[in-house]
Design brief:
Largest sheet: 5 strands, antiparallel
Number of helices: 2
Shape: globular
Helix content: 10-25%
Structural class: mainly beta
Strand content: 25-35%
Number of domains: 2
Pfam family, one: DUF1203
Number of strands: 10
Order of helices and strands: EHEEEEEEEHEE
Protein name: DUF1203 domain-containing protein
Radius of gyration: 15 Å
Strand order of the largest sheet: 1-10-9-7-8
Distance between the termini: 10 Å
């Protein structure tokens, strides 16, 4: 099973502290309807809980393959659920997701993008990560292309 990584906690904390998003705007504060997936802890934000909405670019450098999109974050501090390691994150509530492999330079490895049913995500990610040119796999919404998580090789 690949390892699922949300947004780094330090990055989430900077947004909670008012750091500008990928477009230079402050994160918007809203209330969750119960269906908002936090991209830091990879759990659903409870209904009525405060959350942040912001543009996020999970790439180090600006380059043509550095996709940006909207994400939700718990407005209060959260951390990845270590008890969930070795299983799929709780945020995977859609029937399928888009997986894409990237090289170490954060460029898409062509031919890796595939809409994948949830039960097949781990197997497809493992197959991509077995390829030497694939450094990581990004998991995105198959319908809205929003970044969900980053997958890496198991330790």
């Amino acid at each position: 099973m690949p390892r699922f990584h949300g947004m780094p906690v330090a990055t989430a904390e900077s947004f909670r502290g008012g750091a500008p998003d990928a477009y230079g705007n402050p994160p918007e504060r809203q209330r969750s309807d119960g269906g908002a997936p936090c991209r830091c802890c990879l759990r659903m934000i409870p209904e009525g809980a405060a959350m942040l909405v912001l543009a996020y670019r999970p790439f180090v450098s600006l380059q043509p393959y550095a996709e940006t999109g909207p994400v939700f974050l718990c407005a209060d501090a959260c951390a990845p659920d270590s008890a969930a390691e070795g299983s799929l994150p709780a945020i995977l509530v859609s029937p399928d997701y888009l997986l894409k492999g990237y090289c170490a330079e954060e460029r898409i490895v062509y031919g890796t993008g595939q809409v994948t049913p949830v039960p097949e995500i781990a197997a497809y990610a493992d197959a991509l990560l077995a390829r030497p040119e694939v450094a990581f796999v990004d998991l995105r919404s198959a319908r809205n292309n929003c970044w969900q998580a980053r997958l890496t090789r198991s330790a």
